[in-house]
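Record 1 of the preview.
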Amino acid sequence: MLRSGIRRYCDLPWACACLAICAASICGAVFYALSLQRSQPHVLLARSMLSTAASVDKTACCQTERWACAGTLPWWSGDVVYQIYPRSFADSTGDGIGDVRGILQHMDYLTALNITAVWLSPVFPSPMVDGGYDVSNYTNVDPIFGTLADLDALIAALHARGIRVLLDLVPNHTSNQHPWFVSASSSRSSPYRNFYVWAEPSVSNSSVDFPGPLPNNWLSFFGGSAWTWEPRTRQWYLHQYLPQQPDLNWRNPRVLVAFGDIVRFWMARGVDGFRVDSLPTLLEDAQLRNEPRNPDWRPGQDPFLSQLHLNVTQDVPPLQQLVHRLRDFADEGHSVLVCETPLPPKELSDFYFGCQLPFFFGLVHWTAAWNASRLRHEIVSYLQEVPTGGATPTFVLSNHDNPRVASRLGGKRQARAALLLLLTLPGTPTVYQGEELGLRDAVVRPDQVRDTSALRQPRSLWATVGRDPERAPMPWSAQPPDGGFSSVPGSAPPWLPLPPDWNTTVNVAVQTGDPLSTLSLFKRLTALRREQPALRGSPFVPLDVGLENDNVLAFARPLLCDCGDSSAPSPAPEVQYPPDVYERPANGDSAFIILFNLGNAAAHINVTQSLISAGLASLPDGHKLTVVIDSVDVVARAGESIDAMDVAVQSWQAVVFTLPLAW
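->
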């Protein structure tokens, strides 16, 4: 729900023994620096970082990667999470709105995606003023989506296929129709009064009709003030979203207790974890001080961005303590917390000590104007901040609140390359439904707009703040009138128009039968990721490809530790590292090399020289790389042998290669 645009916020040689998740902060720092160097200084930097890491316990660091090799890492570490927006996935009743049984009808499809978990956007009872994020009952299912029994059946069906289930927990606010707020707004003596955030009027003679000035300058994400006057009890209440979504008061311990009961209720029904909505907004400044102005804001931009929102209404202490308490509840059932945290990397890193998977939103802002340097910087600056000791990077490209990848980057070819990048980055990626098809944002006429956050704003801002285009229904076939979205003949039209090209090439039926389709590319990538520990756990190691190739992002994903015995082979003479600290892979193991050309012209890369320049390996002239997956041609090039000294990468093409390791 929290619009990620609001807050903008190892690279050691093959010789590193720690799983990249453990060592990502060191790894990113070194190789990002290496990628900017051309001469001897990079050797000194590498030696400096190695000496810093020399106290690392080799056995402890390598153990994590051996767990990855053995398949015994936590289930949420490294595999793919798939987000389902239930209103737009599949309709089983014919009312034009997707539902839980619609998801049940597509179990085979979800299984074929090779995903490890499904995250469901809210299905709780709600007036649906904000698409279900205005919750009126946290322990049931809205009739629009079905029944509690339907959700139980879905959980069981997914579990039977080895897929975990995450529910969307909305702790920042409730609906104004929730029994808590109905009681709280009826009397100042209500037992639930302090469940919400209230402010006294600033003048003593305020009346029902004239409450006086607003408590402060705080703005709602969805336009206008964040305060609404409650005439019956003559106080203002806070709502950082819609007036129908009053903010909960997380300084009241009873709110925490209530959410502990909610978490336990769902864990008892088999839920494996929770995506925690709008986490940074749970607390606000206790003194209700004004937000500072944003000096970079210009008229015509989203009014919310005219303020900075730092440490006043977002990421306010003691937020971390609350996150720890939520984690305590989840740990009772061995559940995972996936947290919506659109924060700069340094602030985001603090959430790892409460959430196992706090989202990094840097790539949600990726546009066609970025070059490889900008993209590399976003990735590396985040990985540098991921804490050591087993924390998992969590990348995402899009979701129900942000434009789709194909629309942002310029088309199908770009979206396919971006998918390959996402699924070869370290950690746990989350994929929004339809990205596996390369869906574009739907074209929504003004009379079709349903998003309340847009309707509250001037029409000139709808294209900027509106979220309907990315929420368009999934096209399952090319059959009119609704592309198979509804399984009931004569059903009502879908609640939003279908995305472009749904009746030609961008639907599940057509792409399932096409080995070159975006869907086939996605399945091959997720299968490869499942099979290869190096693609889940090892570090992101940027490679320097020269100034003449500024539009090429090149990186390696090595398998760091020997997954057999614990012996530590002797180091290569050209690599400086303490042999008693680090391990090397065994001869015959493979590393992955990924090349991604974001430019408009072909590029030629000397991969051998790039590896040598980074101090990773010394390869003989003419060494060969093997093509694994090509984003443009999914199958035809698989297994092709390429001269590592001259690798051609076309415009908006991404390729995965394997490289045998020999020391």
